[in-house]
Specification:
- The protein is of the alpha/beta class.
- The chain folds into 2 domains: about 180 residues, 3-Layer(aba) Sandwich (Rossmann fold), CATH 3.40.50; about 140 residues, Rossmann fold (3-Layer(aba) Sandwich), CATH 3.40.50.2300.
- The chain is built from 14 helices and 13 strands.
- The longest helix has 16 residues.
Length: about 325
């Protein structure tokens, strides 16, 4: 069964359920721990957390009244540790909401009983978080962001804008669970287009520019920035390096194009957190995570930064501009 078949109207259905008043049954206000991913001063992270809180409030859960929501932040998602995950579990939350596969892996190792709703994970089955998309089993369920095949789509889109591209650097933290699968998917499509894929593994922000300098010294190059905590938290650093080295680039998230990258195509980032709120609502009402199917994202957006295109001397095809959801000038 295909992933798209699991997309359901969980929010609408949840509104129709009678509330069993968890707080009355247990004598305590339920606690929800939210790890929206990244720094507390990052506007994008704040938007994600805000979207979750608003969606949960619309379902009748008011922070400080009949639920407690605690946000957890970090200087960068790459520095999340086992002790951070243990600290998130220590207060005995009723539900934990996580962002990304690395953080989910840490939490999953810490608990197999506390319900966990994940966001922004690519392949929870292969990563061992759930048994299947339809019946996750265990204490984990949630919302996927991309399939690995998106790596090929991003390459096709970049090639459409830059038809002279014959080489592409693929950047991501090599410790990311999806690194190898993305590389394989990119390589399959790239070979058909006559494009050479060059892995550009980066472990920390200090390595971003050094990973691209040698590659950027040669002509006809491009850059594919895979989704990860590194590329999200340090999107401006990546975009600035790509521009200085004259590398047309594409990433998964709108915030990359808004930070100076050439283009982006991916999920509307507030949607997974709104979706997560519907599952938290159902779990607080008694549903088991293992019975809630993993759902795929349904809202996508393409953004093109014309200012960056002009700086790179690129003329974006009118057909591509016509398909864009937003053009930054």
């Amino acid at each position: 069964m295909k992933r798209r078949e699991f997309i359901i109207s969980a929010g609408a259905a949840a509104m129709c359920w009678p509330r069993p008043a968890l707080a009355q049954q247990t004598g305590r206000v339920p606690l929800v721990m939210l790890w929206a991913g990244g720094r507390s001063d990052d506007p994008d992270v704040q938007r994600r957390a805000g979207a979750f809180r608003t969606a949960l409030q619309e379902l009748g859960w008011i922070d400080g009244r009949n639920v407690r929501i605690e946000n957890r932040w970090t200087s960068t998602p790459l520095r999340v540790t086992e002790s951070d995950a243990a600290a998130m579990i220590a207060p005995g939350p009723d539900v934990i909401v996580t962002t990304g596969a690395p953080v989910l892996a840490l939490v999953h190792r810490q608990t197999r009983t506390i319900p966990v709703v994940f966001t922004l994970v690519t392949d929870p089955v292969s990563d061992g978080f759930v048994t299947s998309l339809a019946r996750p089993g265990g204490n984990v369920t949630g919302f996927t962001i991309f399939e690995h095949s998106f790596a090929g789509k991003w390459l096709e889109m970049l090639k459409e804008v830059v038809p002279t591209m014959t080489r592409v650097a693929v950047m991501q933290n090599p410790d990311h669970p999806a690194w190898n699968a993305y590389l394989r998917a990119a390589g399959e499509i790239a070979s058909r287009m006559g494009v050479e894929v060059i892995p550009a593994p980066v472990n920390n922000p200090a390595e971003i520019e050094s990973a691209l300098v040698g590659f950027g010294a040669k002509p006809n190059g491009g850059l594919l920035v895979l989704p990860s905590g590194l590329s999200t938290a340090h999107r401006a650093v990546v975009a600035d390096a790509a521009l200085r080295l004259r590398l047309p680039s594409i990433a998964a998230l709108k915030i990359y194009a808004a930070s100076g990258g050439l283009m982006s195509y991916g999920v509307v980032m507030t949607e997974p957190y709104q979706q997560a709120a519907t599952y938290v609502n159902r779990i607080l009402k008694g549903a088991k995570p293992g019975d809630l199917p993993v759902q795929a994202a349904s809202k996508f957006e393409m953004v093109i930064n014309l200012k960056t295109a002009k700086a790179l001397g690129i003329t974006v095809p009118a057909t591509m501009l016509g398909r864009a959801d937003e053009v930054i000038e």
